[in-house]
Amino acid sequence: MKDIIFDDFQNSVDDSLLRHRSILDIMSKYTESTARVNRAITKAVTNCGCIKINADKQNLLNDNMSMDELNNCLQSHISGKLCDNCREIIEKEMGNNLFYLTSLCNALGVNLYDILLNEYDKINTLGKFTMR
């Protein structure tokens, strides 16, 4: 069932992409959409203030830490919770980003669901050892 939803989405993106069929257009629109996601998150901090970013050096206690200990000491640097308005804007921008990522997949003849499955398998196989 899930593969049908992904394939239907990928086909719908292909059908709806009219002006930006060139790989160069798709790459530039994808990059632009990524910047818009970043900008929306920045605005949630600087304009709305619903979230805050309190960043400093990631403090690793020692080199002999287990993966669980390492996971517990690393922080996202985000405090607070997105308000409904900021969440809506960020989700819209992420949707546009997903649209152009899917367009890129279409232009290159790559299946989005296969990418998701491959990444999922890698995460499940390697777990925390993917080290991202």
TrEMBL record:
Annotated protein name in UniProt: DUF1573 domain-containing protein
Species assigned in the record: Inconstantimicrobium porci
